[in-house]
Amino acid sequence: MKMHNRGHLLLAAGVALSAGVATHVPAIAGGITVPDSAKSRQMPWGEFKLAPRIVDKLAAGEKANIVVGIEGTGIPIQGAEMRIGMARGCEAANKELPAECRMVGPVNPDTSKQLSELETLLNSGQVDCLALQPPLPSQFTGIINKYADAGIPVFAINIDAPKAKRFAYYALNEMQAGKINGEATANVVKAKGIEVKQIAMGSGAPDQPWAQARMEGFMAGYKSVLPDAKFFNDAKSGIPTGKNFTTQEVLNSVTPFLTANPDVTLFFHTDQGVEGVGNVIRNLKLNGKVFTSGFNVSGPILDAIADETTLVTIDQGFDNQAQAPVEQCARFLAKGEAPEDPLQYLSPIVITKAGGDGQITVDAGRDRLKSASN
Prior knowledge:
About 40% of the residues lie in helices and about 20% in strands.
């Protein structure tokens, strides 16, 4: 993803949502008159015309159906956090118009099932505004365009489809998030006097633009603090650690790599594979000699930060990514408001052991993780 930093939205953390996929909150009473700026709007990709059925149902006081479609509702942390954000966003949306919010998607990633469900929801008129996480960059352009052509506004979350008829995209600026991680990691290294001989970078998807952007950003951020740093590889040659993003794959790939490359004493990982890297370091009894930094949160990742094996991790704020478009759906339908800039970047949540300026502590990270696990 070639992104530019055009501003950030920092959304506050919220409370957990109980089990279930739909959110019911008290709505404002009575119908609303949809403004002309929502009925018809000129977008960069052409004219958007809101479906008359949506205008009529809102005028009649019926609830707007806001749907959040994600790649896998059962994906650890991501699914739960997005459900929390949807609930928080739905509560805010109901201050603008009567709304019911629902999360859909296969339990585990399955592109065919996800697409089939989206087609069914569209054909049965069950969606009035959609926030959608495509499986891969630029994937699902066709279904997004079908929704837009049917008069349903669509917002992309987490993964973009820039060539599709989406209104906006809510996620991290991957390059900037990587740079923030690099700066934070280098500052910890500098403050603690850690000897770093060489830095390697790996990913579950080293060929993907988001992963390469994170690696490129990490290099830039780290070198902005420690300009003489030596890297084993660059953003285009990330070490593949397993396409299924499992801890076992990371153990299988990073164990022989670190064994064969003793000069690599810091390993940056673009995703939750940082958990596996921490395990490798402990298994090889390299604690205090080799370190890691990365993205995402889990109990083991936070434990590794507490024992200073992992220096930094970034919580992507999946809850924030789901909350923002739900609120935006309501603002568009009730007021005709839409972002002028389609790239609506969110601020990363940086977790270090001690916390500090722009960072949160391990304990605060545990609180967020606990809320997502309830």
